[in-house]
Design a protein that fits this description.
By secondary structure, the chain is of the alpha+beta class. 42% of the residues lie in helices and 14% in strands. The chain has a 6-stranded mixed barrel. It has a 4-stranded antiparallel beta sheet with strand order 3-6-4-5, covered by helices on one side. A hairpin with a 5-residue loop joins β23 and β24. Belongs to the RNA polymerase beta' chain family.
Length: 1184
């Protein structure tokens, strides 16, 4: 098109056309050149083809998801991949993948001919591309000169000749490594390595336990398989990406795979006390056991015939190194008092040396929980042992369940007649209670709750009544179902369903909500045409009293559909929002990695953290561990850690008498052990006052010391009745040396030593308190041999726990934060209880935080008070009144404008008395002639005046201060029946004409100035709520005392003004926080905003019970703050970094960035992997 218009212009010039015609043609050419580059110019029409379709400009080819950068350079279509539907197969291993023959005989792997495989490859070449059934062949031979022979056409055996160094593109065979992926790839475990197993039919076969990390189900999901084409790639797949290596996720340092579905249910049933297995079934179970060596375990019952227990099946497959104590999900700690090894209901799972001694296995032990059986096997024995255990559990338990049988039917949802009567009584009582509430509301007898309107209080109370009715009905139904009930069996095992499902099926579906409230009136004061107008009864506002078993009425069905629809829409909207959040997080942090010096840096070399997660540990090896000393009182602490050296009768049974005498008599030893105890005391104090100030005694740390000690006791057969053969001095010296050897930061300079001390501070405190010399001898009874083994294990495991240099922790952090955002809710929630502070949570709040929004939906302060004020509600209430911004509008009951020409008398009968008494003794000299005949009469709300602690005199003084001498204000006594302010305008001129417009002017004063007049409080603090909070305080004598003893009053605000609030004399400025990040950075600076950012992210993520390891949140916080200012995770933040133009253009603003780079001749040193995708072949040429 441009060429054609160019020709036209040349022709016009040659033909000597007039100037204005040439100008028109030149402008047309200019227009087409401009739209060739960008066809979306503002104010310009688009250039179109003859068909009317706009032409695709260079800009539109570059930008967007389908554009050249994101569509063809950052991600490409690839060869050697396959895609098909997935179906389950519990009989393959978790790291295996069933691949259809049709795929295996199409995809190839280039195998180099060596002396060791030449014969095998010759056979494959002989079979060719169409091998006989059950065999695989080869497609091509690639000779050393690069010549490729297609075996479809090469028939001569001489041409099929192989020599060393040739490559044979052979079909896939069993055991080949492949990558499997399911989109959306939300985290690291969405692409994992599998070994293939060729199978008939046309679907990928997947083990059930692997579906959780892929978030896959078998309702038609498809997955992608990629075949690595080199040894390097296969090595990476094998060492980094294989399924067993991915069992434990760095996101929440817990497993992402566990036993699921029928195997989990079978595991619960097979481990019950009364499950006994006959000989024929047990022999067949043994045949499913891979490691069966021909030795049949002894039966638990010999006569009259040999019978084995279900627990013995697990004894076969739990690794012998495992020791574990857990509790079943239905364990009741109060009711079930342990008697040694066992509980009455068999809910204490105890595994010792790989033997299941007691307990019923359920989701809590076999699922993906921290410290569960799978987690412990993976940490203690290794990934391969965890793979074996998951596979064996499925094969053995599934075979038993197949023989034993299990089914579920409609009969499992039916409760007995007595229970059904109880349920209907509960529901009818709730309906009567609601009717009573409606009656109270009509009669205005219902007291509004603090911070809520009458209507909100009514709705809240109704909701409480109805929800309680549903829960009570549900619990009646659950209790009535016997242990043999199949539905209950599935719920208690954790394999499917919840108790809410049972109660909805059997008892009552319950209240349906839309946007967190009861179904609102839709038209003419009704929810549906079936109901009368303004009907507030439960059935009219969405309470479904029927169960699914009985069936819903048409009205109930409509309400149920409304509640369900909201969920569907919410999910659809949320998916796109969280997807974009995750993409932004990844783009902001994808170049952040651990370097070989231990620092965390981006591709430009900027230091984000000096040590990953401040301790240099990989999240995969971290487990929650108890800091014992925090939970002890002083007396218990002394007893556990201090030797009674001054007690003459001290004769310890846990060490040799000679060593005990040494401790008493040798002064040097006494000094050492006193120093050890003082160090432990100092550790306890530091933990209580600086580190664990919240009172939480469980902290995530590497190397599970307690489990290591238990393993040592079992391995070395420790007898606690015998004294140890160790001298306490050996223990102290060994621990000192061990602490020196546990290096995270190498180096002898002062800075490295300080960094090393900080990095290992918490772990060393745990180490010292766990391996205090008295505990090692008395509590654990370790011998010299076992103690040395434990020390060696601690060192090797500590080093194993260090993060590997080159780990792309930025991506891991982004995925760990983005992935839990998907199940988050989109809506705001009210905090339960008295306070009605509205808080934005879920996806909208996460968006606000990472966008660093200037205006947030619900700005709020959490205001803590000084100790002397926080203990008394009255004093706290004074601070509440002092902080809450109060305007005259908030205390006005009514305003009226009167024509009342006589200031001394009045036409308003109610006011006659107080006007008369006021002017008998006026507060000031008033020239009555200057007063306007128009009167603004304000009646104040007594309740609000008392609540805000205001007096009439104070309000009158504020008005006078605001308007100087322009207004006259008189008021009655604070104890009068009605609190009245009478305001008149004062005019300078005494002429009567001046008063004509006073009525209009008074109206202005009433509507604008007076109502907004500030009576007190801090600007922008619109509301202040008072609440009682529990605070943990560390006491040297009692440790952390019970929370109930340490209650204090605190304030929550709507609106923020941190600086002004912190300046109030009764506010504890050190603990008061704001949820508005921009205000925090302006008032307190960058370190404070980093901490605030971390706390806000934690609140959002942990609201629905999710947990993300600290180090991932810390990376995000540091990325946003390391430059000294807040960097938003948007194009305005990410694309303002010093990274190269190729890296920036792959996020957003592609064309603008490339244009600027061209104009200013920018260089790109290809430092990040993202830029290498753009120039893959020759990237190393451009490195500097």
């Amino acid at each position: 098109m441009i060429i054609r218009h160019n020709e036209n212009l040349r022709r016009q010039e040659t033909n000597g056309a007039s100037a204005h015609i040439i100008t028109e043609f030149a402008q047309l050419l200019q227009f087409h050149i401009a739209t060739y580059f960008d066809n979306d110019l503002p104010g310009q029409p688009r250039t179109t083809q003859r068909s009317g379709r706009p032409i695709k400009s260079i800009c539109s080819r570059l930008k967007g998801k389908e554009g050249r950068i994101r569509g063809n350079l950052m991600g490409k279509r690839v060869d050697f991949s396959a895609r098909t539907v997935i179906t389950p197969d519990p009989n393959i291993n978790i790291d295996e993948l069933g691949v259809p023959w049709s795929i295996a005989l199409n995809l190839t792997y280039p195998e180099t001919v060596t002396p060791y495989n030449i014969e095998r490859l010759k056979k494959l070449v002989e079979y060719g591309p169409h091998p006989p059934p059950g065999k695989t062949g080869a497609k091509y031979i690639i000779r050393e000169d690069g010549q490729r022979l297609d075996l479809c056409y090469v028939k001569k055996s001489s041409d099929q000749h192989l020599e060393l160094g040739y490559k044979v593109e052979r079909h896939l065979t069993d055991g080949d490594f492949v990558l499997l992926n399911r989109q959306p790839s939300l985290h690291k475990m969405s692409i994992m390595g599998h070994r293939i197993k060729i199978m008939p039919y046309s679907t990928f076969r997947l083990n059930l336990s692997v579906t959780s990390p892929y978030n896959a189900d078998f309702d038609g999901d498809e997955m992608n398989m990629h075949v690595p084409q080199s040894f390097e790639t296969r090595a990476e797949v094998l060492e980094l990406m294989m399924v067993p290596k991915c069992i434990v996720s760095p996101q929440a340092n817990r497993p992402v795979m566990g036993i699921v579905q029928d195997t989990l249910l079978g595991s619960k049933k097979i481990t019950k006390r009364d499950t006994l297995i006959e000989k024929d079934v047990f022999m067949n179970i043994l045949m499913w056991w891979e490691d069966f060596d021909g030795k049949v375990p002894a039966p638990s019952i010999y006569k009259p015939r040999p019978i084995w227990t279900g627990k013995q099946v697990f004894n076969l497959i739990i690794p012998k190194e495992i020791n574990l104590i857990r509790f079943s999900a239905w364990h009741d700690a109060d009711a079930e008092k342990e008697s040694g090894f066992i509980t009455p209901s068999d809910t204490m799972v105890r595994i010792e040396k790989g033997e299941l001694l007691s307990g019923i296995l359920c989701k809590k032990t076999l699922g993906t929980s921290i410290g569960g059986l799978i987690h412990v096997i993976w940490e203690e024995v290794g990934p391969d042992a965890a793979r074996k255990f998951l596979g064996h559990t499925q094969w053995l338990v599934n075979y038993w369940l197949l023989q034993h049988g299990f089914s579920i039917g409609i009969g499992d949802t039916i409760a007995d007649a007595g229970t059904m009567k109880k349920i209907s009584d509960t529901i009818s009582k709730a309906k009567n209670d609601v009717d009573e509430l409606i009656k109270q509301a009509h009669d205005k007898k219902l007291e509004p709750e603090p911070g809520r309107t009458m209507m909100e209080s009514f709705e809240n109370r109704v909701n409480q009544v109805l929800n309680k009715a549903r829960d009570d009905a549900g619990s009646s139904a659950q209790k009535s179902l016997p242990e043999s009930n199949n539905l209950k069996a599935m719920v208690t095992a954790g394999s499917k369903g919840s108790f809410i499902n049972i109660s909805q099926m059997t008892a009552c579906v319950g209240q349906q909500n839309v946007e967190g409230k009861r179904i609102p009136f839709g038209f003419a004061g009704r929810t549906l045409p079936h109901f009368t107008q303004n009907n507030y009864s439960p059935e009219s506002r969405g309470f479904v009293e029927n169960s699914y078993l009985r069936g819903l009425t048409p009205q109930e069905f409509f309400f149920h559909a409304m509640g369900g629809r909201e969920g569907l829409i919410d999910t659809a909207v949320k998916t796109s929002e969280t997807g974009y959040i995750q993409r932004r997080l990844v783009k902001a942090m994808e170049d952040i990695m651990v370097k070989y010096d231990g620092t965390v840096r981006n591709s430009v070399g900027d230091v984000i953290q000096f040590l990953y997660g401040e301790d240099g540990m990989d999240a995969v090896w971290i487990e929650p561990q108890k800091l014992d000393s925090l939970g002890m009182k002083k007396a218990e602490f002394d007893s556990a850690f201090r030797y009674e050296l001054d007690d003459e009768n001290w004769r310890p049974t846990y060490m040799s008498p000679k060593y005990a005498d040494d401790l008493k008599t040798i002064h040097k030893f006494r000094i050492v052990f006193e120093a050890e105890f003082q160090k432990l005391e100092a550790d306890r104090l530091q933990l209580g006052t600086e580190i664990a100030t919240t009172g939480d005694i469980t902290w995530p740390m590497p190397v599970n010391l307690k489990r290591l000690i238990w393993n040592a006791q079992k391995t070395f057969k420790i007898d606690l009745r015998r004294p140890s053969d160790m001298h306490p001095m050996e223990i102290v010296e060994a621990m000192d040396k061990l602490q020196e050897r546990l290096k995270v930061v190498p180096g002898d300079d002062a800075m490295s030593i300080e960094a090393q001390k900080n990095a290992t501070l918490l772990f060393n405190i745990l180490l010292r308190s766990t391996f205090a010399s008295k505990r090692v001898l008395k509590e654990y009874g370790l011998t010299r041999e076992s103690f040395e083994w434990v020390i060696g294990e601690i060192e090797s495991r500590f080093l194993q726990s260090l993060v590997a240099p080159g780990e792309m922790i930025g991506c891991v952090a982004a995925q760990s934060i983005g992935e839990p955002a998907t199940p988050m809710t989109l809506n705001s929630f009210h905090y339960a209880g008295v306070s009605a502070k509205n808080v934005t949570l879920g996806v909208p709040r996460l968006t606000e935080i990472i966008n660093v929004a200037k205006k947030i939906k619900t700005p709020s302060l959490s205001v803590f008070l000084k100790p002397e004020v926080s203990k008394k509600k009255e004093l706290a209430k004074n601070v509440q009144c002092a902080l809450e911004y109060t305007t005259l509008r908030s205390v006005i009951h009514a305003t009226e404008i009167w024509y009342d020409p006589d200031p001394l008398g009045t036409t308003i009968e109610e006011d006659v008395e107080f006007v008369k008494s006021y002017y008998e003794m006026p507060d000031e000299d008033i020239n009555l002639d200057k007063l306007s005949p128009w009167l603004l009469r304000i009646e104040l709300n007594r309740e609000m005046m008392v609540d805000k602690r205001l007096s009439m005199a104070e309000i009158a003084e504020k008005i006078k201060h605001e308007f100087d001498d322009d207004l006259s204000c008189i008021f009655n006594d604070d104890n009068a029946d009605k609190l009245i302010l009478r305001i008149r305008i004062k005019n300078d001129d005494e002429a009567p004409k001046q008063h004509e417009n006073d009525g209009v002017f008074l109206k202005e004063i009433d509507s604008n100035m007076l109502t907004e007049l500030a009576l007190g409080g801090v600007p922008d603090i619109n509301k202040v709520f008072i609440k009682e909070g529990e605070v943990n305080k560390f006491d040297e004598k009692d440790g952390f005392t019970q929370k109930a003893k340490n209650k204090e009053w605190m304030l929550d605000t709507e609106g923020v003004n941190l600086l002004a609030v912190m300046c109030h004399e009764d506010v504890d400025a050190t603990r008061t926080t704001s949820n508005h990040l921009i205000e925090v950075i302006e008032v307190l600076g960058i370190e404070a905003v980093r901490r605030s950012l971390l706390d806000e992210l934690r609140v959002v993520i942990s609201f629905d019970g999710s947990y993300v390891n600290y180090r991932h949140l810390a990376i995000l916080c540091d990325t946003m703050t390391y430059k000294g200012h807040l960097m938003a995770i948007t194009r305005h933040g990410i694309n303002r970094n010093d990274t190269g133009p190729l890296m920036r253009c792959s996020f957003e603003e592609t064309v603008d960035i490339l244009l600027d780079a061209a104009v200013y001749a920018e260089s790109d040193y290809l430092r990040c992997h993202r830029e290498h995708y753009t120039w893959p072949a020759r990237s190393y040429w451009y490195r500097r």
